[in-house]
Amino acid sequence: MKIELSGDTFYPVGALENFLPQIGRVVELGDLPIAVFRTSDGRIFAALNQNPHPKGGPLAEGIVSGHYLYDPLYDWKIDLTTGLVQAPDTGRVTMFPVKVEEGQVFIAAAVLQQA
Questions:
Q1: pLDDT at 48
Q2: Which of 67, 73, 75, 114 is at 20 to 30 A from 87, Cα to Cα?
Q3: pTM of the full predicted structure?
């Protein structure tokens, strides 16, 4: 499933303090499960909680190191800044824009279209 994101409407998904460094947490945005990750340098990333591997699986249980997510099921390395799976594997994770304001985490989701 490919999801295209357009627009710039941000929705609150929780307080920053609820997202622990290097541990994924799943939030629901509409009907979509979104994996939210906080890196050791404090940046927040949000991805569709769906592994691009042909067999699928969740991403939230992955291990965060730097700006990379290491998938525990298939040992894939995913760049959280781009969503790209690193070589020798290939694929892309659907990433969502994130912002933090006044201690709250917001994820962008205006129009979600399945293609």
A1: 93
A2: 114
A3: 0.86
